[in-house]
């Protein structure tokens, strides 16, 4: 498991945005992963997807790494942001936009606004 922790640490620290998910950004394998990937894809966020279904050590390791029991998990600039419910709330409140801007992550602001309008 130490190897998994090292691999996870390398991933989250070497990439600006990383989503640990079930499936891939183009083919999510659960509804929660699909929702977060859908938000990021729609907003045009460049991110690395890590399919935890392909590696049992990573699947358990990411839960231990973040001390968060569920997947998906979003990391921005090495920091754990949250899972599906938190990302959904942050998107709808505009907090995700603010955090991405503060971290220098490019995204489509008009798309983010459309998500909020559609959920108002």
From TrEMBL:
Binding site for [2Fe-2S] cluster: 30
Record keywords, A-Z: 2Fe-2S, Iron, Iron-sulfur, Metal-binding, Redox-active center
Gene3D superfamilies according to UniProt: Glutaredoxin (3.40.30.10)
Residue ranges annotated for the Glutaredoxin domain, each copy included: 17-81
InterPro entries membership: Glutaredoxin (IPR002109), GRX_PICOT-like (IPR033658), Monothiol_GRX (IPR014434), Monothiol_GRX-rel (IPR004480), Thioredoxin-like_sf (IPR036249)
Molecular function per GO: 2 iron, 2 sulfur cluster binding; disulfide oxidoreductase activity; metal ion binding
Matches recorded under Pfam families: Glutaredoxin
Family: Belongs to the glutaredoxin family. Monothiol subfamily.
Entry protein name: Glutaredoxin
